[in-house]
């Protein structure tokens, strides 16, 4: 099972990792289908902070963090803990998650339509 953490701002990816007080935790179980089974839950942090977000990622054994802006110190910490960080992403969470599940999500992508 793969776990993904996405900082939220309403239905979009939060613009900054350290300012989100809601987090979507996604558990993906790859089965015989291409997409597998997906379970989502939203957690609310007491206070938005990078430290709280990192603690949650480590405690929940997250493998991937998808975010927009993140300070280098916390990016490096997560990578050091073996957590892949896909940063510099913008857009609605459902579109971003679809791109991730399809293996098309890379840093620097913007998913807002004009």
Distinctive features:
114 residues; alpha/beta; six-stranded mixed β-sheet; 25% helix; 28% strand
Structural description of this entry:
By secondary structure, this protein is of the alpha/beta class. It has 3 helices and 6 strands; from the N terminus they run ββββαβαβα. Strand 3 and strand 4 form a beta hairpin. 25% of the residues are buried. The model has no long low-confidence stretch (mean pLDDT 92).
SSE blueprint and pairings:
Layout: E1 2-9, E2 12-13, E3 22-29, E4 37-44, H1 50-59, E5 64-66, H2 72-80, E6 84-86, H3 93-101
Parallel strand pairs: 1-5, 5-6
Antiparallel strand pairs: 1-2, 1-3, 3-4
Summarize the structure.
The protein has 114 residues and is an alpha/beta fold. 25% of the residues lie in helices and 28% in strands. It is globular, with a radius of gyration of 13 Å.
N/C terminus separation: 35 Å
Radius of gyration: 13 Å
Query: What does the main sheet amount to?
Result: 6 strands, mixed
Q: Quick check: average pLDDT? A: 92
Number of helices: 3
- The shape is globular
């Amino acid at each position: 099972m793969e776990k993904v953490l996405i900082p939220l701002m309403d239905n979009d990816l939060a613009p900054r990792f350290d300012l989100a007080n809601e987090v979507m935790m996604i558990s993906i179980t790859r089965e015989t289908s291409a997409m597998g089974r997906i379970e989502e839950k939203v957690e609310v942090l007491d206070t938005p902070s990078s430290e709280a977000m990192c603690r949650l990622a480590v405690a929940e054994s997250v493998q991937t963090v998808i975010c927009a802006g993140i300070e280098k110190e916390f990016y490096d910490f997560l990578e050091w803990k073996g957590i892949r960080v896909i940063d510099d992403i913008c857009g609605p969470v459902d579109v971003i998650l679809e791109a991730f599940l399809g293996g098309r999500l890379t840093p620097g992508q913007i998913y807002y339509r004009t």
